[in-house]
Amino acid sequence: MGDVVLGYDGSRSTRMALDVAIEQARAFGDRLVVVFADEPPGRSAGEEFREHRRALDEIGEQALADAAERAKASGVEAETLLVPERPAVALEATARSHATRLIVVGTYGEGPFKSAILGSTPHKLLHFSEVPVLCVPSTGENP
C-alpha cells in the first residue's frame, strides 16, 4: 500500500484526473493525497500579495473539500494539502515526503512547444519526477 498523489485545482481536467486517481487508489488499496498548489506572482510582501494568497487559499480549500468528498463517497481514504508553491515543485515534494506510488495530473492538451515555453506542470513532472506520472487527457478544455 502506498499513496497516489493528485494535483487538483477543480478544473475539468483535474476532475477527470481525480476519477482516475480514485480508481487507482481503490484498485491497489492506496491512500489518495490531493494537492492544491499555487503561487501568486510577484513579491511575497505587501497587502496585495496577502489578498491574492487569501483568495488562492479560499479557492484551494473549496477544491480540496470537493475532492475529499468525492474520494470518501468512493470509499477511498484521502488526505488534502494546500501548498503555497508552484504546482510541479509541490507535487514532487509531496511525492518525496510520502510513500508515493504514482502522481496523477490532468492535461489541457498543450503541444510540446507551448508546454516547454509556458512550463506546464505535466511537462515538468514527466521530465523530473522520480515517481511514475500518469497524465489524464482532457479534450476541448480551456483552463
TrEMBL record:
Pfam families cross-referenced by the UniProt entry: Usp
Domain UspA: 4-137
Protein name in the entry: Universal stress protein
Top-rank taxon: Bacteria
UniProt similarity note: Belongs to the universal stress protein A family.
Record field: transmembrane: none
SUPFAM superfamilies reported for this sequence: Adenine nucleotide alpha hydrolases-like
InterPro entries with a match to the protein in the record: Rossmann-like_a/b/a_fold, Universal_stress_UspA, UspA
Organism taxonomic ancestry: Bacteria, Bacillati, Actinomycetota, Rubrobacteria, Rubrobacterales
